[in-house]
Amino acid sequence: MSQDSPADIELDGLVRRFGERTVLRGISLSVPAGATLAVLGRNGAGKSTLLRILATLLRAHAGRVALFGEELPRRAWAVRGRIGLLGHEPLLYRDLTGRENLTYHARLHGVSSARVEAVLGAVGMELRGDDPIRLLSRGMVQRLAVARSVLHEPALLLLDEPRSNLDPAAGELVEPLIGRGCGATRVLTSHDPESALAEADLVLALRDGAAAYFGPATGFDVAAIAELYA
To answer: Quick one: DSSP state of residue 194?
Structure first.
């Protein structure tokens, strides 16, 4: 990325409220293309809310939010096709098969059927692709959710506890798709902060909705983790 290019993510004074409760308080940061931002904090700190704003599912109440140089929410339509979201909900229809779900999403994004088969194979679900989602284990559903999130080869991956329900073998299977080497800009949350730090370039530590720390991952050590979660 050249110095004249906008960062993939730019926040300036982001505020989000739910009723009278302020969930995010004046968050400012910049994430360059290809970097990984780990968002850490206790339950209720605002991590998932931040990801939903970046996914264009929620609006900020104050401050500036821009993705790829496009202002949100005014230009949200211009960036949605460049975002992949892997959250707590798999965003898969339970009565459809994995293959049918991916085919549906492929049509939304103008992606070929060959790509559907490629991602099914990449997550090791090609032989179970014709089973309804409701009959699959949580780990298999999570693998299909990973496939859905990367189906359209997004430039920005928003990963909310992305390896939940995955055993070690499945975790290794999806690593090329959502791991540090996938090539996308990534924002991730994790219940394992030390693992998140190990794969992050930048860290945003949230305490009660405010930024307790934003900076290089190398500047946020084990002692800081303990204090954040105390």
So the answer is: H
